[in-house]
Amino acid sequence: MTRSALEPADAVLIVEARAGHGWAREALFRRYAPLVNGLAYRLLGGDSDLDDLVQESFAQALTCLDRLQNIETFPTWLATIVVRTSHKLLRRRRLMKRFGLWKPPEIDWEQVRSNGIGAEDLLELRAIYRLVHDMPAELRVPLVLRHVEDRSLQEIADMVGASIATVKRRIAKAQELLAIAMKDQPRTSDAVKPNAPEATNEPHTPRVANAGRHRDG
């Protein structure tokens, strides 16, 4: 996101928002709506609940601004709220699906393509999202954060409130489920190829290089 030199800094907006000034809260919303919308879109896969999740995440953030200790970490703090709100929604959906009360929505891939994602990255995204709908939220969220959002293991651990070791285990388990599902989809598996393991001993997992960043502006 580009920012004009005439626009107030985050610190100014947060101080004014804490004081109850509506214009500052609105300015924070406008500034960070692309980030929140993009992250929520990729965690959910894009559907009718997206707007509600974005609004709920902002409402939580603006209500709890006094809890933010370091103003400079506001974007990461806000992203963490989005992740945890999405996690709760995904868990609730999985339960509803078990009882036949919810059906995964179709993703508008033309809309995804229109946001600057190349054909090869788009193919990998489709492969991942086709297979993660049945995953538990505690596996799906770290997988998407790591291999669609391209977040570091430390960032993911902070966002989901778990240790790095736990995050690694969850990503490894998610990859196992992904690999099993891909056995029945040979064309898809050709599109998603694992990289060599990193120094963190992270398991082989598909990567979508920078694909997750396009919607953030």
Based on CA inertia axes, which overall geometry fits?
elongated
Radius of gyration: 18 Å
In total, the number of strands is: 0
Average pLDDT confidence is 77
Percentage beta strand: under 5%
Total number of helical segments? 10
- Main sheet characteristics: none
Instruction: Please mark out the parts with pLDDT under 50 across 5 or more consecutive residues, or reply none.
Output: 186-217
Classify the helix fraction into a percent range. 55-70%
SSE series: HHHHHHHHHH
SS-derived structural category: mainly alpha
**First and last CA, distance:** 5 Å
Explain what this protein looks like in three dimensions.
The chain contains ten helices and no strands. The chain has helices at residues 10-18, 22-44, 50-63, 74-98, 109-114, 119-132, 137-147, 153-160, 164-182, 186-191. It is elongated, with a radius of gyration of 18 Å. The protein starts with 9 loop residues before the first helix and ends in a 26-residue tail after the last helix.
Layout of helices and strands:
Layout: H1 10-18, H2 22-44, H3 50-63, H4 74-98, H5 109-114, H6 119-132, H7 137-147, H8 153-160, H9 164-182, H10 186-191
Helix pairs in contact: 1-2, 2-3, 2-4, 3-4, 7-8, 7-9, 8-9
Short description:
This protein is mainly α and 217 residues long. The protein has helices spanning 10-18, 22-44, 50-63, 74-98, 109-114, 119-132, 137-147, 153-160, 164-182, 186-191.
Characteristics of this structure?
disordered C terminus; mainly alpha; elongated; 10 helices; 62% helix; 217 residues
